[in-house]
Amino acid sequence: MSRVVVAQDYTLAIATNRFTVGESVYVAWSTPPWSPGFFDWVGLYHASANDFNWVSYKYTLFRFDDTYFTVEEAGEYNFRYFVDNVLDKRATSSNFWVWPPAADLSLVRNYPSPPGPIIAFGDSLTAGVGASAGHDWPAIVSATLGIDIQNAGVSGDTTADALLRMGRDVLVKRPSIVVVLLGGNDFLRRVPAETTAANLKTIVARIQNGTGAVVVLAGVQSGYWGDSFASVFRRLADETGAVYAPDVLRGIVNNPFLSDDLLHPNDAGYAVVANRIAPAVAAVIPPRLAIKAAPDSFLLTWFGRVGENYGLQFAGAFPDGPWIELVLTAGTDKFVLIKVRSEGKQGFFRIMKR
């Protein structure tokens, strides 16, 4: 059990740090002898959210010392224990990840994509309007996944504007993955939804055909067109073989805790957006190995896929070196560091999926 003690023997514990969307997440707690009170409660939170922005909650009375929550959205979460029906927090659990069901990557066009930069292509929501420095969603996803993401967001862009600049901002850079987050300004300028959908389809196709990159399409319907437009983003993703990150603004627009101007997210709001995009990006990052040579050794950084096991071998010399198991754990490891002694031998590294 992963356990964190915060104040006077109030604790919260979860069994593991990895779950799947729709799975029951059990949380257990312990309290001092005089507690729990009639109105103590446990809240489920996005890991970066403030205490005002719970996802759901349950009172502890008559639940003995544990309960469960069903999480319907991928992202990083934690539990928090409060007393007396107010935001008097006494404990916070360790963070845990909820991942989407394993995707059929054979349906993702261009996966695995060739090496290249990861680009976030969008409007003010990508540029980070409303966020303080370093708190736009590309920066947060970069830090969360341990990768570099180039921010190609331009405030005010419609899908038509993005089409005009995508050559210099995306195509010439030969990216590996492109996250497309566009459409909000089309609605604000009353561009017909059919035109927006056609422009988005052209953007996705040009990226896929012109660079060989995988496209992650972020849906922005909530707070703009409403849920009726969700099918357009979903259909577009299915038709083009893009990875779909649905409704990344849900609960943010018009929420004074997550948006300063009731349109653009604030720092807390962008953290929620990042929480919704990160699993989609993580699913399609190609496994890769970075090598730094020293006189008698190699320092390797292995970026793998969570949930898959690989083996690494220094080969080509006689005899071949032993196999090293490479395993990543969601929510804790972003990469594995390995030091391999070369002892002056020449060879190459062989990686195989176990």
TrEMBL record:
Question: Domain of life of the organism in this record?
Answer: Bacteria
Question: What GO biological process, any one, is recorded here?
Answer: lipid metabolic process
Q: What SUPFAM superfamilies has UniProt attached to this entry?
A: SGNH hydrolase
Gene3D superfamilies from the UniProt entry: SGNH hydrolase
What InterPro entries does the record point to?
Ester_Hydrolysis_Enzymes, Lipase_GDSL_AS, SGNH_hydro, SGNH_hydro_sf
Residue span, SGNH hydrolase-type esterase domain: 120-272
| Molecular function GO terms recorded | phosphatidylcholine lysophospholipase activity
Q: Which PANTHER family match?
A: SGNH HYDROLASE-TYPE ESTERASE DOMAIN-CONTAINING PROTEIN (PTHR30383:SF5), THIOESTERASE 1/PROTEASE 1/LYSOPHOSPHOLIPASE L1 (PTHR30383)
Q: List the protein's name.
A: SGNH hydrolase-type esterase domain-containing protein
